[in-house]
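Sample entry (371 residues):
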Amino acid sequence: MSVDDILVIGGGVVGLSIALELAECKLKVRVIDRGFVGQEASWAGAGMIPPGEIHFENESYRKMARLSSQMWPGLSERIYELSGIHNEYRPCGAIIVPRAGSSSSEFEKEQLCWNKQGIDTSLIESSDLPGYQLSESAGEGKSYLLAGQSQVRNPRHLNAMKYACLSLGVQITEHQQVHAIETEGEKIAAAITDIGRYSADRIVFAAGAWSKELGQLLNVTLPVEPIRGQIVLLNTPGQLKHIVEQGKRYLVPRSDGRLLIGATEEHVGFVRHNTAGAVRDLIQFATELVPSLDSASVEKCWVGFRPGSPDKLPILGQLVPWENAFVATGQYRAGLSLSPVTGRLMRQLLLDESPEISLCDFSPSRFTKPE
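Predicted structure, serialized as tokens:
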């Protein structure tokens, strides 16, 4: 039996971020993953890092988004020193294009919401869009530049995180799925896989879209649903300098000329394949914004499963009634961008410190029906 200070079940970007924070505090940490670490939603996304949050009015969530954005440069330097791997973090800005049919007042309200958080935006007239390699007819009316937006190359970030954790002594156990939990009174005694039995003083469940099944092993409610997202990757001469967003769809240009087009939101369970209709729609979306992409080559397509809670807010905190069980899941579309602050806040919670941002609104107990 392995006995650790902390056992993290789930090796996505959230689980690895928690492990990194704790390992830097000289704790003995183990990460268990059902597959290869960092190969699910963390790997599949586009790596966008907004400077704040405007789509949810929850103030704690907005504080998390702002702080996490500020943490990314330092984290990127730290894991490069530990791993020798560049995650290609870079500020690149984003052009926000209005959705078809949206009113000018809605768009102005959105821009004002950024400004109230101290985040600068600047208007772009339709006639100026060709200067950004965009069609003048993109969207309807004015767009704006969100200069504080950044991006990271998430597959490389996950690789850097893995080796940074290993360099700090984190034990990473791959291809072991937890199928049972042993309990003693109100404590978890061990997590059981087909190969081993793993025990720790405290256990963190960070299994993303697979969290619901783990909750059932403990008879606790973790209502996390997999939300499939499809992405198309083009290989094209580097035309775009900025991320482009229109509603929930986006174009993300990489430094080597590749371009990500995303993403769908589909409630289809764990159905792991691309569909012709979704791929067609994504490519059509991209070529309407940037007509020159018609000649780009399609390199590949893939899917990922976002962990969505009923209110689309994270689930962070202790798993009552278990004294030594904690959870970090349900980040929906923001798992990667919020991973630095999530790691820090969970480290503070696990070490019995007061988290610098209140986690009350993210408690897993909010989904528990009163008896």
